[in-house]
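One record is kept unedited as follows:
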Amino acid sequence: MDPKDLQQFQEIVQLILTEEKDHPVAKPVSVDELSSAVNLTLQDDPISDETFYNEFQTLVKKTPKTASKSFFNQLVGGRRSRALLGDLMASVLNNSMYTYKVAGPMVGVEREIVNKLAQMLGYADNAGGTIASGGSMSNFMAMVLARDAKSDSIQEGVMHKMILYTSEASHYSIAKNASLMGIGRKQVRFIPTNELGEMKVDLLEAAILEDSESGKVPFFVNVTSGTTVLGAFDSIVEASKICKKHHLWLHVDGAYCGSVIFSEKYKHFLKGVELSDSFSLSAHKMLGTPLTCSVFITQHRQQLYESFSSDASYLFQSEKDDFNPGKSSFQCGRRNDALKLWTLWKSIGTKGLEKLVNHQFELAEVARNYIRSSKDYTLYSFDDSISICFNYKNIPAKMLSKELYLHSQLMVSHGSFEDHHFIRLVTINSDNSEKEILDFFKTIEQFVAENTLILQH
């Protein structure tokens, strides 16, 4: 690496850290202003080092600060230094995770993560898995495994009208994946939820029976451990009973909150997970690794190979299949996203990961207590979730969220459930303390008090 680039990198990182402290919310750049605010043009001729570094620095300064203590907008936040170290080293080493020949000991890193998690889940010895590019990809892999396990003629294509089931509050990737894998969006049955956002499992079985009686082929049930808006947990135990009865694949989408598996206090939300066929979690969410780092694990390691392995003599030239991850992954060329989770886990241990998870629930309780203490707030979410959904003084959530962003006060999202629309605060940044949560509410209150005209509705 060019020493000048390394020096510039260090200086820009220091700039980011300073900016996050002094200006935690970057001034938004609108789509209309983008071309004038940042020089993104790719020209024919080289530019000077000074010009390059200056324009690169400008680009970085105007980018949203997702690790600042005022970022509550998405299901990511904070910065785990040891995980970042692993992520940077993965870029420097630039190994592709398809063969042992190319990745060497890094294959062992990935296998250790998969095996350790499988053990924690209570999966049998024939479990296997991979590191996926995100929760959507993990769900896709689970759906493909389930489809292939159900159909003996899958090599000839989808020969029957196959049906899959998920809750109305599940991730949008389920319907998109159904289209991509040849099942079709119209073959997705969205099961209604109760007042807590949990799937109504009794309606699940009724839907399965109706489809079976009409000649369709039910094959897959997705339950969510941490729905995107409310952070609800579907009942794995009850869903498992139905899946066993009707011979369906059960997948647990734990992208958002599956990391409660590391917490003795909160892992009861995953009760029955050992009964599932597959499970996924995204370490870039509750564990705070850099994007992306999702772990996909299945009880049926052989099905991974049957669904995703293809012969390629130009690639797979050494060692046994268990050490050639390309034979059990959707991707061929694949970045080493396991290393950042390994460096974090290795350095702070399972107990350290547990502290990260528990702290997020503690911060959520601070937020709920504050909301309940004031008549100006309305709480829409429930206990035991790190998603806190509320309104302040009946100001439309979309408007308040937008104005806080445009005025560089806070980055926080809004969402809806049933007939309610609200601000969604996510306490996923383990770097935050009680002070940052209370400051969040004080910022909203002060902003509203000073901007009554623009918030009139």
About this structure: The first helix runs from residue 3 to 22. The chain is about 40% helix and 15% strand.
